[in-house]
């Protein structure tokens, strides 16, 4: 009897490992939040950037940050090609300015920002610079073409990269019942009316 329980536990653990492996990464890259043209954005990098940006960017979710981390190199490259490139020092200055405005001088000065947060600020500066170009439409198209041509794979845990150049959150499985109510499918089905 102890042998059967042990085998059952081994099967459960093995199944959990297989499922966990599928959810843990993409393209065979454990710990990857996304892989973009072979460049891995790790879940740790995403978590750190999100944690560092949360105090100063209200309402941004992990998918928002991941979307920017995916597309930032393309925006930065187009900005550089157009002669309006940005650097890490400018990005850090933007982060400091926003931090002071969001949480005050003392607390804002104490916040630390790593490579992911700096990349988000670089993206913001590059996107703003591209919008201010005389041919902003052409720059936007060049950026969109580069993103569209990229091989982008997002870990299903975070959702999927869409044609709108954002990471859409994963859809809840149909069997998940929303808080305080019936499943969405139940809401779509009208109750039968009693026959007279």
TrEMBL record:
The keyword Iron does not apply. Residues 176-196 are annotated as: Disordered. Residues 1-24 form the signal peptide. The keyword Nuclease does not apply. Keywords: Signal. InterPro entries: Trigger_fact/SurA_dom_sf (IPR027304). This is Lipoprotein. It comes from Cellulomonas phragmiteti. The lineage of its organism: Bacteria, Bacillati, Actinomycetota, Actinomycetes, Micrococcales.
């Amino acid at each position: 009897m102890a042998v059967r329980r042990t085998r059952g536990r081994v099967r459960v653990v093995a199944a959990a490992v297989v499922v966990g492996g599928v959810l843990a990464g993409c393209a065979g890259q454990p710990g990857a939040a996304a892989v973009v043209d072979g460049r891995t954005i790790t879940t740790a990098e995403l978590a750190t950037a999100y944690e560092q940006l949360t105090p100063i960017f209200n309402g941004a979710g992990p998918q928002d940050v991941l979307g920017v981390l995916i597309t930032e190199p393309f925006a930065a490259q187009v900005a550089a090609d157009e002669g309006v490139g940005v650097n890490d020092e400018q990005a850090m200055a933007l982060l400091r300015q926003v931090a002071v405005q969001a949480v005050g001088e003392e607390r804002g000065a104490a916040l630390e920002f790593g490579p992911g947060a700096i990349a988000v600020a670089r993206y913001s500066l590059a996107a703003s610079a591209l919008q201010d170009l005389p041919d902003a439409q052409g720059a936007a198209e060049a950026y969109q073409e580069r993103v569209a041509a990229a091989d982008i794979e997002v870990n299903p845990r975070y959702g999927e990269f869409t044609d709108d150049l954002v990471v859409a959150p994963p859809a809840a499985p149909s069997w998940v019942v929303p808080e305080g109510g019936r499943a969405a499918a139940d809401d779509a089905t009208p109750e039968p009316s009693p026959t007279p």
